[in-house]
Amino acid sequence: MKKTIALILSLVLLATACIMIPASVSAEAMPMYVYTANGKTLNVRSSPEKGNNVIGRLNYGDQVLVEFINSTGWAVILWGSEGEAYVQARFLQDDPPGPKPTPSQDDKETQELKEEQNKLNKELKSEKEIEPFYGVVRATRVTGSINFRVGPGKITTRIESLPDGKELLIIGETTNWYRARDPQTNQVGYLYKSFVTRINKELTNAEGEDGKRTLGSLNVNGEFDLVCELPEGFDLQYVNMQGTKIVASIISQDMTKPKMYLNIAYDETYGEVDRMNDMSDEDLAILEGTFKEVNDVNISYTETGHGTKLMVVQETGTDDDFVDILAIYKGYFIEFTMVPNENAADKTLTEEQIAMCVKFLTELDFNPIQK
């Protein structure tokens, strides 16, 4: 009888133990192989979540020993002295993968674009004002000219090609580029420092002063120029041009002042519209509706000093105040946005700030390119 009871108890304990062991845990770790479609490495993490927990990486085709895969898609693997670690199970397969895939041309171009964007951002962060001086262009022998660009990076649009011997007024610098003004055209752009030689030419008082903070002659994809004086205390800190889209950030060192953004992009919808002045009331109502559907806004109209009609959209709520000013010129949709800075005490825009925003855009000059 005692033996029977002991046997029953043993069976109960064994059954209980089996229930407590997860069904997905095998007695021995199972070998699996890393497969990433792009051939890149796989992160190994200390916990089953994305975050600051990467403890190593596995290469394409590496074998790992998998203890089990949990319900959230993480595989528990044997990992060095740590004992166990985690990888995403979707990047593992039972059999060794074929040859490592080579990046496609699109992948290469995307990666190159990211690298150039990172370079541009670093250059912009390093930008500083300097004591103005004159420099002369020393172009390469191959082309006889150098590129004069809207920003300190190869992905920014070229304003023009400057010939050897061209004189420029150097007014700023980044790590590898100079910001310069062409005294003849008043255009402001960037060029590599290595292509500029300083010359001994005396500055006039007007040239040395930095009184007017302007967009200069900002060429928009060869279609037209934007010329305008910036509000006092603001600088055009960032210009990025890719294809038909242009984004500029106009910010101040005073972090309580509002943020301003200038976005320009060609829009097929307005391809036949020379200016907003030419749009019908019906078309304007459709454009207004895109704002009214999302926000509680007041919409009014003004125009630049050069007769270009502007739509002024002001958000009337108190949570996320903004003012948008829109213009359409030669098929380009030009949008200027002002929003409160998160460091400001009051998270809504003041009437004074809005007036500054409107003044800035009404003074903006759209100059057609003379061909």
Main sheet strand line-up? 17-18-19-23-22-21-20
Which topology of the largest domain does CATH recognise? Answer: Protein Transport Mog1p, Chain A
Largest sheet: 7 strands, antiparallel
Rg (CA only): 31 Å
Return the string of H and E elements. HEEEEEEEHEEEEEEEHEEEEEHEEEEHE
Rounded mean pLDDT is: 79
Number of domains: 3
Dominant shape: globular
CATH top-level class of the largest domain: Alpha Beta
- Mind telling me which CATH architecture of the largest domain this is? 3-Layer(aba) Sandwich
Beta-strand proportion: 35-45%
Number of helices: 5
- What's the end-to-end separation, in Å? 110 Å
Structural class by SSE content: alpha+beta
Number of strands: 24
Describe what you observe in this structure.
It is a single chain. With 371 residues, this protein is of the alpha+beta class. It folds into three domains: 92 residues, SH3 Domains (SH3 type barrels, Roll), CATH 2.30.30; 87 residues, Roll (SH3 type barrels), CATH 2.30.30; 151 residues, Protein Transport Mog1p, Chain A. Helices cover 18% and strands 38% of the residues. The protein contains five helices and 24 strands. The strands form six sheets. A seven-stranded antiparallel β-sheet has the order 17-18-19-23-22-21-20, sandwiched between helices. A five-stranded antiparallel β-sheet has the order 6-5-4-1-7, with no helix packed on it. A hairpin with a 4-residue loop joins strand 4 and strand 5. The longest helix is centred in the N-terminal third of the chain and has 21 residues. The protein is globular and about 80 Å long.
